[in-house]
Amino acid sequence: MRPGVRLSIDLGTHRIGVARSDAAGTLAFPLETVYREGGQELFRIVELAAEYDAREIIIGLPRLLSGKEGKNAADVRSWGAELEQLLPTCNIRLVDERLTSVSAHRQLRSAGLGGRQHKNVVDQQAAVLILEQALETERQTGKIPGVPLGSGPESEEA
Question: Structure pTM?
């Protein structure tokens, strides 16, 4: 397992869930919800990356159930490319995030939070699930999870 903090991003149309790992790269924690505001949110992500000295940023790539990429995946790739311009030395990777938001809603309901109560934290919980999946993949396979941001839409993920 590679040491170092990783940030995880669940990019929505209005909100961005952010999670982080511990320095050992073994545990995932919710960090915050950042609101998309005409690109200004990118600067908050850059601040978080600097604050936690992130070695890597993992962005959830929403695929259709068929495995193909749709409009939302194109938005993630475009937004990620903008972030990469601001963080050229940070490793940015994409991991399949199918159904993480559904799982996050389910977990929060199971914890006793109603729909209105978990609206502000569901994106953070989805980011935690994306990060947990990536960390577990690395633990099990010894490979860096996902694919580099610059890879094409049909690339296979680890």
Answer: 0.84
